[in-house]
Specification:
Elements (H helix, E strand, L loop, with lengths): L18 E5 L11 E5 L4 H10 L3 E6 H7 L11
Antiparallel strand pairs: 1-2, 1-3
Length: 80
């Protein structure tokens, strides 16, 4: 794991992420698969709505709580 602060996934945003948005596209992914986007406080609602309207959003978890659940952490290049 790296010591770098997690960065929000919103286009052009360089703020520190404090939320993990877990999602999957049922047309592409198995039901248990979870991809992740990271969100700062400002972009949490916007990114959640974007995923929610499409039926992709599965969970929104505080970054700290997600790290406790998944020690490898969210946001690997393959999951963004």
């Amino acid at each position: 794991m790296t010591d770098e602060a997690p960065i929000c996934s919103a286009k052009g945003c360089r703020s520190t992420a404090v939320w993990v948005l877990a999602w999957n596209n049922p047309k592409l992914h198995t039901p248990e698969r979870r991809k992740t986007w990271l969100a700062c406080e400002e972009h949490r609602e916007h990114l959640s709505k974007f995923l929610g309207v499409r039926g992709f959003l599965k969970d929104v978890v505080a970054f700290e709580d997600w790290q406790e659940q998944d020690p490898q952490g969210p946001g690997s290049a393959a999951d963004r």
